[in-house]
Specification:
The chain has 567 residues and is mainly beta. It is built from one helix and 38 strands.
Length: 567
């Protein structure tokens, strides 16, 4: 456990009224619960996430190759086309001057890429990414009587960029060549009314830092970034058609968050990018608010709950079970506890965090946030257990613990994931209008005339309006949401300091017609800030299948809203 984590745990113990002396003295070395000026840096782990199984992602192009030595007289493989080509196009590999009638193993150099995190007991730090080079067996061929061979095959579905190809005979690399896998852009459909979902697929992204992300632009406005750590060079997203009737340009190009405008002059001139014209056919009015959830995968990091405050009573045999393990604030769950000793009433508490990521000490974490717990239910122990309804309290999203208490002792605990959700708004008569967009000056009673509960929000140009979300978390993976207005990135909002309640103030701009607002997941890299954490503070458009939180059980969605501007 890091000193930063230990300090926060002491804060939780103090908040619970427990004596700090229960913490082993060895864990307190160099940590003062009241001193924010210590110069001892915390221990921060850097865990490379084992890649989860993402649906539809291509595996390595072959099994890992056996180790080989390089011949001092290594020859050259001829690989065509010389300019390379995209995935699934044809490439021809030819070799000569080799042993006659020999078995040749062709190998392909590639990489595995993944996200790095530091999973603490009560947060997750985003630590960047890692690339590991590997070589796989690609194909086997046999030389002819002249010691030559030629093989035509499909370009592997793999990361883009340059790949070394070796011809191996008896464990020795005897010929070497390289092939460049180039980029392709697929956009479907290419026309439709305002709000049409547009699937964008950018294939052939590389594995290295400067080749692994791409910027998406709509009419020269930055919409967000695609990444392909776990998707082996394929970045995918869905954006919505925005703007007036007519043609609009969707562009995708390699980037390190921001678009690299002159790649032909870079060390990687094959980072070509592409553009497509999308034709907006009509404006049928604003679509209703909606939520897009990421894929659900089996977590590969054990610390599913980023909050594990205090220690269980070592003598306890109690087990706490929730009827479900996730839901939005206000959800009703059911808690069942067995294996309790004694009789009486057991208290059930909800463990969360309190604070913010602003002006906190980078050394101890103090001044940032502290653990907190509050009672949410109770149960009368009968035959060693009890069962009770549980309402998920309004507050921070993400992973929490439901604690079964016996006085100050934790007898059992169960994890619960609070999902982000759209805040419902009502008119002055208490009628539910829709979920998502409030009206001018954040006054739900002032919804524009003509709304009639259909989710159509009408404003005059320049009028202020708000969008509200509940259940925003506190880690670097879920404490913020980025905001696109008509596919143009305008900024982000944070829900930590406001206990999970995020209210974004915007202005109706862009002229008469329908305008779209989309809230995307984002990697928060301002506080705490670690070295080598790229892709931060921008919309991660590919978060549905390539986002570090997925491997820890996080489900950070994308929210879709729309308004109508009238004269």
């Amino acid at each position: 456990m890091s000193k930063m984590s230990m300090t926060r745990r002491i804060g939780w113990i103090a908040a619970r009224g427990l004596a700090a002396a229960v913490v082993p003295v060895a864990l307190l070395a160099g940590v003062s619960s009241g001193d924010t000026n210590t110069t001892t840096a915390p221990t921060v782990s850097n865990v490379s996430i084992p890649t989860p199984k993402i649906p539809g992602v291509a595996p390595l192009p072959g099994p890992l190759a056996a180790a080989a030595t390089i011949s001092p007289n290594i020859g050259v493989l001829t690989i065509s086309p010389l300019a390379g080509g995209p995935v699934d196009s044809n490439m021809t590999i030819s070799g000569s001057g080799l042993a006659k009638n020999a078995s040749v193993q062709l190998t392909w150099a590639t990489s595995n890429a993944t996200w790095n995190v530091d999973p603490e007991p009560n947060t997750v730090n985003y630590m960047g990414r890692t690339t590991t080079n590997v070589t796989v067996d690609l194909a086997k061929v046999t030389t002819d009587a002249n010691g030559s061979f030629s093989l035509t095959m499909k370009v592997p579905n793999d990361f883009g960029g340059s790949h070394e190809i070796y011809a191996v005979i008896n464990g020795v690399d005897v010929n070497e060549g390289a092939f460049i896998t180039t980029r392709t852009l697929t956009v479907t459909p290419k026309s439709g009314p305002v709000g049409t979902p547009i699937t964008v697929t950018y294939n052939g992204m590389g594995s290295s830092l400067f080749q692994n992300s791409a910027a998406v632009l709509w009419d020269n406005h930055f919409t967000g970034e695609l990444v392909s750590e776990w998707t082996r060079g394929t970045g995918t997203t869905t954006i919505r058609a925005a703007g007036p009737v007519g043609n609009h340009v969707l562009m995708v190009g390699d980037a390190l968050t921001d678009l690299y405008l002159n790649p032909i002059q870079s060390p990687y001139p094959f980072m070509n990018g592409a553009s497509v014209v999308f034709h907006v056919t009509k404006d049928s009015g604003p679509p209703k608010p909606s939520v897009s959830w990421p894929v659900s995968v089996t977590p590969t990091v054990n610390e599913l709950t980023t909050l594990q405050p205090g220690d269980l009573d070592p003598s306890s045999t109690a087990v706490a079970t929730l009827s479900t393990q996730s839901g939005p604030v206000g959800s009703t769950d059911h808690l069942t506890v067995t294996g309790l000793s004694g009789t009486g009433t057991a208290q059930v508490e909800w463990a969360t965090e309190s604070g913010s990521r602003v002006d906190c000490s980078s050394v101890t974490g103090q001044g940032c946030w502290v653990p907190a717990a509050s009672p949410v239910a109770s149960g009368t122990i009968t035959n060693g257990g009890f069962s009770t309804a549980l309402t998920i309290p309004v507050g921070l999203g993400g992973w929490h613990m439901v604690l079964v208490m016996n006085g100050t002792k934790i007898e059992a605990q169960a994890p619960y994931y609070v999902k982000e959700s759209i805040v419902p708004f009502y008119n002055k008569n208490g009628q539910l209008l829709s979920e998502g967009v409030a009206t001018a000056n954040n006054a739900p009673a002032a919804f524009a005339a003509g709304d009639s509960g259909k989710g159509t929000y009408t404003f005059k140009e320049g009028q202020e309006f708000t969008i509200s979300i509940k259940g925003v978390g506190w880690t670097q993976l879920d404490n913020t949401l980025s905001v696109d207005y008509d596919n143009s990135y305008v900024g982000y909002g944070c829900g930590f300091n406001s206990n999970g309640y995020l209210v974004i103030h915007l202005f109706a701009t862009g002229g008469v017609g329908t305008h779209l607002i989309d809230l995307h997941p984002m990697l928060y890299t301002s506080q705490p800030a670690f070295a080598n954490t790229p892709y931060g503070l921008a919309p991660v458009l590919s978060s549905a299948n390539d986002f570090p939180g997925l491997a820890l059980g996080y489900q950070v969605p994308t929210f879709h809203f729309a308004i109508k501007i009238v004269k």
